[in-house]
Fold Carbamoyl phosphate synthase small chain.
Amino acid sequence: MKRQLILEDGSVFVGEGFGSEHVTEGEIVFTTGMTGYQETLTDPSFYGQIVTFTYPLIGNYGINEDDFEATCPYIKGVVVKEWANFPSNWRSSLSLDEFLKKYNIPGISSIDTRKLTRKIREFGTLKAAICDEHSDPSEIVESLKARQFQIDAVAQVSTKVCEEIAGSGKHIVLVDFGAKKNIVAELVKRNCKVTIVPFQTSATEILALKPDGVMLSNGPGNPKDVSCAIPMIQSLLGKIPLFGICLGHQLFALACGADTFKLKFGHRGANHPVQSVETGKTVMTAQNHGYAVNEQTLKGTGLIVTERALNDGTIEGLAHTVYPAFTVQYHPEASPGPHDSNPLFDQFLYLIEEHTKEETNYAKTH
Ligand SMILES: NC(=O)CC[C@H](N)C(=O)O
């Protein structure tokens, strides 16, 4: 069945439909990961987006729910060169096509994804629609121009209730802006007790849980749309060690008085090189973000840049110079992607340990 991918700038790509047959609209982005499509499809940070996979064959090891990063996908559509009709893996329970049908997500294949990606790189992130072959492109373009995606995104993906995962180690409160499951898994692996709380939870409510540390999770959309998190972070800063990932990093920067901006086409993939400012060491990272912190606005915030993206020089890591808090723009929990930066979770637990010692010493001497 022929379908069209129509972009906001009027470009039309004709391909073959798969997955759901309904019409979909969203912000079109591209990701360069060669594997890990299941984790990408189910990462809540992609809420409201149509994802183009630049790797030409997607779906060859099928779909299994164990690899999901959330209970269901929040993406609006999938664009591939080719999808695998006969997946081969003992863990697979569905094909990519069956998965997209199950969750009512349209897909389009046989698209020149290199040409499409060049377009997105040249013009920047665009709005797009996947629709049937008879739809009138000019009507679709008009409708796209009037649309705004990722509105209220965090509220759509954050947990509605607190959830506690037992553990004998440090107690970490994870503020859920659309957290990937693997962040929780990394904490559980380190014996942490984890309490996942909704994104509107106040600092007072968080402190009442008596955590040893607070994590600010990844999540979809523009950080400036999550204004309720700013006073929460400001009140926690200095009282409790903080670690932020991706959206959590951006919100932390805003709370400290810095600004964020939208990147032209974002960073999405599993092979983004990031360099430490202090040591010069480069690690490969998994990334999925469309916004970044503006380095020009760091003056007077108490923040220093700890890491930078080697591809475009944008900020990838921040630390507070006075309080125990650090954040990264990339994904140390990987899934999908390299595990080079996984030790950041240990670094966070070390920071908690040091903070506890300082607090105890202070209590003894006062
Ligand atoms: N993965 C994330 O947390 C993404 C953060 C934010 N929504 C962005 O696109 O920049």
The chain is about 25% helix and 30% strand. The mean pLDDT is 97. The chain has two domains: 2-145, 153-365.
